[in-house]
Amino acid sequence: MAFGRGKVILLGEHGVVYGHPALAAGIERGVHATATEASTALLSIPVWDIEVAPSSDPAESLGRAFGALLNVYDSPPCLAVRAEVALPAGAGLGCSAALGVAILGAMDEALGVERSAEERAEVSLAWERVFHGNPSGVDSAMASAGGVAVFHKGKPLDHILPRNALTLVIANTGDSASTKTMVDSVGRQHERNPERVDGVFDAIAAVVRNGALAVGAGDWKALGQLMDLNQGLLASLLLSTEKLEDLCHLAREAGALGAKLTGSGGGGCMIALAAERTSAETVLHAIEGIAEEAFIAEVGT
Ligand code: PMV
Q: Of 139, 175, 184, 246, which is the active-site residue?
């Protein structure tokens, strides 16, 4: 059985598409997949009631993405792949990258193909490109490797070993957002006013560099402040929503050290950093009323 993890971006989304660093962490929720020999290639995702064959139809994204993964082999294999998804889709937790990594991993296992975590992330981008056009690769890298790391487009992950696990509260607004739409919106702002948007990205990059130091030192107070700063910078790019702002506000009021959107924004999830488990439970309780789903995740152990 192969696994693709979900991820949270602690700091640095969107800038990462333009070559700036991002600080990300794998979470233990994700996608498990298995592959068995079959007469024709088929992908099933029972939780969404989906069964698709590889396809080249532009309207069939899943079929095209599955076809793109089958085409990474010298001759496309006939495998029935089953994926068990335990992540919300379109919520900023890297569901599609986790699917790509798990499906490729399951097919590799069935065919006896060995790849490093880095290679698996790179090859699975064939899947991710169908959905996101121009992904930075951070989701696939984290889905494959996990842990806490600084990601730079086109470079190997720079892993950080935190002194202690980070305790996060992850809350889904329930409003799904398309990563491509949000990335395109930032792209249009960048085209109209490159100086302003590059200035925001430079500030986000500084936040990421300081965040990486804070994680290494176990300085959660500093990391929380950097998350708040990052949220303001993302909001200046029109990526936040009223519900994300409400969730951040409630989390901070309940004692979170910092809170921000994670992933593309425009909906999806908020993450809040807690000093420890008990305070995470207080935060969880405070936001439960308005979040569609919320849970505590310990990352970086
Ligand atoms: O919303 P997600 O989980 O797909 O995260 C997207 C992160 C972005 O930086 C906005 C896009 C990217 O390709 O890195």
A: 139
